[in-house]
Amino acid sequence: MSAPNKSYDPVEVEALKPEEIERMRDEALAAFAAADSLDALQEAKVAHTGGTSPLALANREIGALPPHAKADAGKRVGQARGAVNKALGARQAELEAERDARVLVEEAVDVTLPYDRVPAGARHPLTTMMERVADVFVSMGYEVAEGPEVEAEWFNFDALNFGPDHPARQMQDTFFVQGPKGADSDGESGVVLRTHTSPVQARTMLDREPPVYVVCPGRVFRTDELDATHTPVFHQIELLAVDEGLTMADLKGTLDHMVQSLFGADMKTRLRPNYFPFTEPSAEMDMLCYVCKGESVGNPDRPCRTCSSEGWIELGGCGMVNPRVLTACGVDPEKYSGFAFGFGIERMLMFRHNVEDMRDMVEGDVRFTRPFGMEI
Ligand code: PHE
Fold first, then answer.
1. Which end of the chain, N or C, is more open, meaning fewer C-beta atoms within 10 Å of its C-beta?
2. Ligand 1 within 6 A of CB of 319
3. Are 56 and 10 contacting, i.e. CB atoms less than 8 angstroms apart?
4. 280 carries a ligand binding annotation
5. What is the structure's pLDDT at 74?
6. What are the angstrom distances between the C-alpha of 20 and each of 46, 82, 89?
7. Domain with 65 in it
8. 318 lines ligand 1 (CB under 6 A)
């Protein structure tokens, strides 16, 4: 800064010369125009309006001028600074607007994206199906009974009147649990993976006094290879009723009620003679095909894929509980009689929902289960 003086001409002070002030102003305007970001503009602002900027230094020179020269120099510097501040504000607003527009694009939220990155699972249709069937009987007053999946051979076979040489005992059907092998043991454990839910019949009768009305859903095991129509692990539902005076007519009425509840009011069942060691008489139970209602039979114009135009769909086995089983389980066959039936859930799911490959049911792919929804 120059020292105060009396006869001072601002034009003579280098920094206050009009063309100098103009140059400073133009440099500042050019710097602002060239700033392509808010950071760059901030730098230009410090350089051209800060305390050590050329115009600020020039402004300080004014204080040293004699009074008559101050107004003239002050006006020049003031106008230049005004123009610089105005340009700065304008450029600032411009760059901020650009930034805001960019942020709107870059940080936009796509509200149509899936909000849930961990989709909830779905209940397996086998579970839903088993519960639907069990519910039909629970609403009739039956209780749900369960038994172990690793079962004593006695419950799985002997109590159910399977002779020691019955083919179902043989290795090709049954998973035998290996026992310890040693000097005093041949490796036989007397334990199997249950091959059906019928052992729950024996357990229930031993467990409680008649009248007995139970429904037994559960997992069963047979030594089948997994393919489109077989699986070594599958599900059955068993029904057992033991009371005074029960007859085959009660069995038939119960079966009809079940298929009507599950498949529609115009459904019915039919029985065909069969053999099971634990029921006598025994029958194979079929239900009317719920798709063609039997109308495809002998009618080539209306073939039915669901029942292969047979008119009936095979469900499972049933019969009157064999008196030998009642006796083995401590129930007096002179006083009580009973009926039982059992069928596979996988099969029912296959024809009810047109599932064509059994493997879809065991692979655990949610794309299979999800379309069945969350029926509870
Ligand atoms: N347990 C038999 C099976 O697995 C089905 C059945 C149950 C038959 C009850 C008669 C009575 O094939």
1. C
2. yes
3. no
4. yes
5. 85
6. 19, 16, 23
7. 10-106
8. yes
